């Protein structure tokens, strides 16, 4: 097995000591040869893998977080479907495309590492490297659904409103040289929520499930679309918006219809993962909407609002189309359970 390892030497979480811990388990895999390449700038990982097939490498292993995974997926797969017609074509050809592309593996070295954790690996790099080595040894792979938005792919989540506001503010915090710690996320999220209470986004949602069921919402202040479950921005606390969601079905949508008053406070705590027991969920049920296995989602705002995909701020927009593509990519995973 010939493997391309992609690392980010400029990341504060990656250094020579980390590589000394994670490389030996991979080198011990029978028949594995490895080539390492280092990114030099944002978007470099995407450029590195563009056009690669299994004739070049059997696998690509990302050493990084969800942003690095997102870059590699977008580079490997190329443009994503933009509308319903393209989605149907992409769904039909995805298994063939996945078979021709290198299999994706991940060793977590980011702040949240949602993608790799959702696949069943540890969030700790050294332990995840040992787990991945065992998976490589037995060639355990699975194909997963991916989300698409306006020609680009996402693996974890996307949305307008509160989460995008938090990520945009965190980008500014990191630009000032501060680490993206869970407590900083909490502080920024609290300020974003307080601001949103006075001038909340007004998001119109039109969604269709694979079963044909439809959803219509007008003017909701929070809308999150997730491709897996659970996920989080706040350390290791799980953020469960759609309990039945997984990499084996369409997108899970979670909307809050109001964010003011007691319901808004409890809803905020639920969103950041402070409800692991599910006890608070009963208080927000009347002000939340869950919709599972969505094949296509149209999101429209009357004025520009921030949008995020896979934890990366993507600017302000008034309209976004989300689609779900089955079996879009093959990944290494401890099991194929959905």
Describe the structure.
The two termini are 27 Å apart. The relative contact order is 0.17. The model has no long low-confidence stretch (mean pLDDT 83). Helix content is 33%, strand content 32%. The chain is built from ten helices and 13 strands. It has 338 residues and is an alpha+beta fold. A hairpin with a 4-residue loop joins β8 (203-209) and β9. InterPro entries: ATP-NAD_kinase_N, Diacylglycerol_kinase_cat_dom, Lipid_Phosphate_FormReg, NAD/diacylglycerol_kinase_sf. It is an enzyme of class 2 (transferase). Belongs to the diacylglycerol/lipid kinase family.
Task: Give a concise summary.
By secondary structure, the chain is α+β, with helices and mostly antiparallel strands.
Keywords:
alpha+beta; nine-stranded antiparallel beta sheet; four-stranded parallel beta sheet
Reconstruct the topology from this structure:
Elements: E1 2-7, H1 16-27, E2 33-38, H2 44-49, E3 59-64, H3 66-77, H4 84-100, E4 103-108, H5 114-118, H6 125-137, E5 141-149, E6 152-154, E7 157-160, H7 162-175, H8 182-198, E8 203-209, E9 214-220, E10 222-226, E11 251-256, H9 261-271, H10 281-284, E12 288-309, E13 312-332
Parallel strand pairs: 1-2, 1-3, 3-4
Antiparallel strand pairs: 5-6, 5-13, 7-10, 7-12, 8-9, 8-12, 10-11, 11-12, 12-13
Helix pairs in contact: 1-6, 7-8
């Amino acid at each position: 097995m010939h493997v391309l390892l992609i690392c980010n030497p400029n990341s504060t979480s990656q250094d020579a000591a980390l590589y000394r811990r994670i490389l030996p388990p991979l080198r011990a895999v029978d028949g594995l040869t490895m080539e390492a390449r280092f990114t030099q700038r944002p978007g470099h990982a995407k450029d590195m893998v563009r056009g690669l097939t299994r004739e070049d490498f059997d696998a690509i292993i990302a050493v990084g977080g969800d942003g690095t995974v997102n870059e590699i997926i977008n580079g490997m797969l190329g443009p994503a479907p933009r509308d319903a017609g393209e989605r149907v074509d992409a769904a039909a050809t995805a298994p063939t495309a996945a078979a021709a592309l290198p299999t994706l593996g991940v060793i977590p070295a980011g702040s949240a590492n949602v993608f790799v954790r959702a696949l069943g690996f540890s969030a700790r790099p050294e332990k995840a490297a040992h787990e991945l080595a065992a998976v490589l040894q037995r060639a355990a792979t699975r194909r997963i659904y991916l989300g698409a938005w306006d020609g680009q792919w996402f693996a974890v989540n996307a949305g307008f409103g509160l989460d995008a506001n938090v990520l945009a503010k965190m980008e500014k915090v990191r630009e000032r040289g501060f680490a993206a710690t869970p407590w900083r996320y909490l502080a920024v999220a609290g300020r974003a929520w307080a601001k949103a209470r006075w001038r909340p986004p007004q998001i119109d949602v039109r969604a269709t499930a694979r079963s044909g069921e439809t959803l219509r919402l007008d003017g909701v202040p929070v809308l999150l679309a997730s491709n897996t479950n659970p996920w989080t921005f706040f350390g290791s606390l799980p953020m469960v918006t759609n309990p039945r969601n997984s990499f084996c079905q369409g997108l899970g949508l979670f909307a809050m219809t109001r964010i003011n008053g007691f319901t808004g406070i409890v809803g905020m705590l639920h969103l950041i993962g402070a409800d692991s027991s599910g006890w608070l969920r009963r208080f927000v049920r009347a002000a939340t909407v869950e919709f599972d296995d969505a094949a296509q989602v149209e999101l429209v705002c009357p004025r520009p609002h921030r949008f995020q995909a896979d934890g990366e701020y993507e600017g302000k927009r008034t309209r976004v189309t989300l689609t779900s593509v089955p079996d879009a990519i093959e990944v290494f995973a401890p099991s194929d359970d959905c």
